[in-house]
Amino acid sequence: MSAIPIRDSKIETETSINYGRIIVSGLYDDISPIGLEAVVYSQERLPEPVLATEPLSTNKVTLRRIAECELIINPLQMKSLYMWLGKKLLNMRKYSEKSHHLKT
After folding, report:
1. What beta strand segments (E) does the chain contain?
2. DSSP reduced 3-state for 6
3. Could you give the CA distance from residue 18 to residue 21 in angstroms, rounded to a whole number?
4. What is the pLDDT of residues 42-81, one digit of tens each?
């Protein structure tokens, strides 16, 4: 029995009830036997400590970092992600050379 090619298969899709948008401020990672394990976090500035000083002291700003999710990426998907990001970075570089808006 041969495998059915994906292009000939019906694909059903749905959105997870946990689906959300994360504005990525950073991540930290580790390599494990199952692939790359990366924790994605967002970051926000808390203005209250600055506003509580007179005169305003911007060196009193507090940052809050929120661990949003953990990604576990197997080696095959790591390669796919690498190739996808490479294409996106190349397009961004071409755009920035034309528009001079982004410095890479």
Report:
1. 26-32, 35-46, 62-73
2. helix
3. 10
4. 999 998 988 888 998 888 889 999 999 999 999 999 999 9
**Nearest residue to 72 via CA among 41, 30, 42, 43:** 30
- pLDDT at position 59, please? 84
CA dist 22 and 17 (Å) reads 15
- Put simply, whether the predicted model's pTM sits higher than 0.85 gets the answer no
Q: C-alpha angle 98/99/102, rounded to 5°? A: 110
Three-state DSSP state, 5: coil
Going from N- to C-terminal start, the domains of the chain cover 22-99
Cβ count within 10 A of residue 28: 10
Residue found by looking up tokens 């690498």 in the block: 82
pLDDT, position 74:
94
pLDDT of 37 strictly over 90? yes
- Helix, strand, coil percentages (3-state) for the chain, rounded to 5, are 35, 30, 35
